[in-house]
Amino acid sequence: MKAFNILIILVIIFSLTGCMKLRMGDKNISFYSLEYDSPQLESAPSLSAIIRIERFRVFPLYDSTKMIYREKAFRRDAYIFHKWWANPPDLVSYFLARDFRQSGRFNAVFSPDQSIPASHLIDGMIEEFFEEDDVNAWYAVLSLNVSLIKEKEPDVSKRILMQKKYAVKEPCLEKTPIALAQAMSRAMAKASEQIIRDSYEVISASTH
């Protein structure tokens, strides 16, 4: 009887081990990031402004590394085995800081993790960051609400120099998660370039 019980226990253990290996093998998750060259802007005089890019906030629906997609109105779903390397706020804030820095149009540019005094802040909200599916094509949808803030301005009503929404919709070349990452990268590149241009113009005008 003891031998039979031991045999049953061993069978259960081996069965569970086999199931665990199978499940782990099936969960082969792929991770994606944005990837694009910083916008190439025409040469312009560098401003004395010191910019800090704040970590963007995000609509709760997209506050996740999950790759979100929309097939029908009022519905959102997520890929199981395809994810972003980091949350959208971290991706957007990092690439925006990099692009501002590469533009060469400002005295200095700092990332959210650098607590260095700045003359201006770029703050914002990610309102949309998802894949939109329809019968004919897929699209990367990116929507950013951006504020340009002047630091140490005693008059609160004059602190916000600009508040603007940037919405970009880029087609995916294929109906795959990697095509979504590519399309979202193009969307971010376009939004980033326009944010840099607008910020430069507003700061330049405010100092004259």
Describe what this molecule looks like in 3D.
The chain has 208 residues and is an alpha/beta fold. It has one domain: ABC-type transport auxiliary lipoprotein component (Rossmann fold), CATH 3.40.50.10610. 34% of the residues lie in helices and 33% in strands. The chain has 3 helices and 9 strands. Strands 1, 2, 3, 4, 5, 6, 7, 8 and 9 form a 9-stranded mixed beta sheet that branches. Helix 2 packs across helix 3. The termini are far apart.
SSE run: HEEEEEHEEEEH
Q: How many structural domains are formed by the residues?
A: 1
Q: Class in CATH?
A: Alpha Beta
Structural class: alpha/beta
Helix content: 25-40%
Radius of gyration from CA coordinates = 23 Å
Tally of individual helices: 3
CATH homologous superfamily name?
A: ABC-type transport auxiliary lipoprotein component
Amino- and carboxy-terminal Cα gap: 94 Å
Uncertain residue segments? 1-26
**Strand composition percent:** 25-35%
Largest sheet: 9 strands, mixed
Reported by name, the CATH topology is: Rossmann fold
The CATH architecture is 3-Layer(aba) Sandwich
The overall strand count is 9
- Average predicted confidence as pLDDT: 88
